[in-house]
UniProtKB/TrEMBL annotation:
Range of residues in the leader sequence: 1-19
Domain Glycosyl hydrolase family 30 beta sandwich: 409-458
Keywords recorded for this protein, A-Z: Hydrolase, Signal
Disordered: region residues: 35-58
Protein name: Glucosylceramidase
Glycosyl hydrolase family 30 TIM-barrel domain location: 64-224
Biased composition (Polar residues): 39-54
Annotated family: Belongs to the glycosyl hydrolase 30 family.
Species this chain originates from: Tetraparma gracilis
Length: 460
């Protein structure tokens, strides 16, 4: 019998006689306070059992760039209300690796200008919100909100050197638009506007690795934070912007689409009619599921996909498994990472723009009146992936998962880290503990108990 070592709460290895066990086991449970808890097989084992299988010798599918969330005006505003010491603790907890509860986020999104998570008192803003058209962008400036965002991202980089940063534009300056669509005579100004933003960041030492030209291009609401952009326009703008980025000596990729999975024909048109798109960004809100990512990948080999937005709303009815599902399922379908909306929120839900996502919460919730903060369960649930799956890991499918119509069941995904170690994340959507056997091709099975209503990570 092999002897498996588990990490227990006191960080003292406990040796148990089992067939084979994870060397590290952590879980976040819906029935306990937030935290990455230690776990190990119980004695006696639960009466309920489940079998999964994974081939660790198989070729991995897509490479995973990481997991994370979004920097928004709301996030920087609420973080600014905390003490400098608390700010540093939060940054290290979100992005570092030195703290036991640090979750090492490595795939981050940042709003380019205003979004629906811009505090209402900011008013409508962009980097060139001039009263009259300014096609030469002579009035371009990051402005105070933009400088605030840049400052926080620079501080983030003091705690990590491995973040992939995606910028997403919600709306160009108002003078560029008519009927909430781009005035076509300003298409080159649009591309130049983006290059000025990227250059300002680069000059400050921040490389924006990728960019989406328009968040949710099929959504038209408040012109302050939306713009309607059809696929034909997107393809032309992709070519124009990619050329301008290249001429400026920047290495920023363009990711197409940045909207729901129910219209895969949109990014397909962009890819077929432009040369600038390196990947596709998808959101979760249509209810269409994630098969579009799988099908799109099959039709477009070599084109990466990412799940770039799904909201957090812990205080207004979010289910415990909402976050782990919108991470696990896109990755199982072929995505190279997943990001939550948003990084930091207000305990009073008072930092959205009118008509925006008032109910959205963050991985970190801040009480601005008391200058205190809370790490939410979503923080720990996302950490089940980000803390243990290394940047550059390869995805390995885990077979045997199943979910019934009532929402109960088991799902799992696997990864092979760059150091050769294996990571398996298991969702137990039953109200009872389950003894899980993971059959490994060519090796001993791994046996362990998975807590009721939990997200559990095994590091093998």
């Amino acid at each position: 019998m092999a002897r498996g070592a588990f990490l227990v709460t006191a960080l003292v290895p406990l040796h148990l006689s089992v067939a084979a066990s994870p060397s590290l086991c952590k879980y976040t449970s819906g029935s306990e306070a937030g935290g990455l808890h230690s776990c190990s097989p119980s004695d006696p084992a639960p009466s309920s059992t489940w079998s999964l299988s994974m081939d660790p010798t198989d070729d991995t599918r897509q490479t995973v760039d990481g997991f994370g969330a979004a920097w928004t005006d709301a996030t920087t505003y609420v973080f600014d209300s905390l003490s400098p010491d608390d700010q540093e603790v939060i940054l290290e907890t979100l992005f570092g690796s030195s703290k036991d509860d640090a979750i090492k986020l490595e795939l981050m999104r940042t709003t380019v200008g205003q979004s629906d998570l811009t505090p209402s008192h900011y008013g409508r803003w962009s980097f060139d919100e001039a009263a009259e058209p300014d096609p030469d962008l002579s009035k371009f400036s990051l402005t105070e909100p933009g400088e605030r965002m840049l400052s926080w991202i620079m501080r983030m980089q003091e705690h990590t050197s491995s973040v992939t940063l995606l910028g997403s534009l919600w709306s160009p300056p108002g003078w560029m638009k008519q009927d909430n669509q781009l005035r076509w005579q300003y298409r080159e100004s649009y591309a130049a506007y983006i290059v000025k933003y990227l250059t300002a960041y680069r000059d400050a030492g921040v490389e924006v690795d990728a960019l989406t030209l328009q968040n949710e291009p099929l959504h038209s609401a408040d012109p302050a934070w939306t713009m309607l952009e059809d696929a034909r326009c997107a393809a032309i703008l992709t070519n124009l912007t990619a050329a301008a980025i290249g001429e400026a000596g920047l290495g920023t990729e363009i990711w197409a689409y940045d909207h729901n999975t129910d219209h895969p024909e949109y990014p397909q048109y962009v890819l077929d009619n432009s040369e600038g798109a390196a990947a596709v960004a998808w959101h979760c809100y249509s209810g269409a599921g994630w098969d579009a990512i799988k099908d799109f990948g099959a039709s477009n080999p070599g084109v990466r996909s990412y799940m770039t937005e799904c909201w957090l709303h812990e205080t207004t009815g979010e289910g415990f498994f909402d976050l782990p599902k919108f991470v696990l399922r896109p990755v199982a379908a072929g995505a190279s990472g997943a990001m939550a909306w948003t990084l930091g929120g207000s305990a009073d839900l008072d930092v959205s723009y009118p008509g925006g996502c008032e109910q959205c919460t963050g991985l970190v919730q801040v009480d601005m009146k008391d200058a205190t903060y809370e790490l939410t369960k979503d923080f720990y649930k996302l950490g089940q992936f980000s803390k243990f799956v290394q940047k550059g890991a390869g995805y390995l499918p885990v077979d045997g998962g199943y979910v019934w119509a009532d929402g109960t069941g088991m799902e799992a995904v696997g990864f092979r880290n760059l150091d050769g170690g294996l990571v398996v994340v298991v969702l137990n959507m039953f109200d009872n503990d389950v003894q899980v056997t993971l059959d490994l091709a060519g090796g001993e099975p791994v046996v362990g108990d998975v807590k009721a209503n939990s997200v559990t990570t095994w590091v093998l």
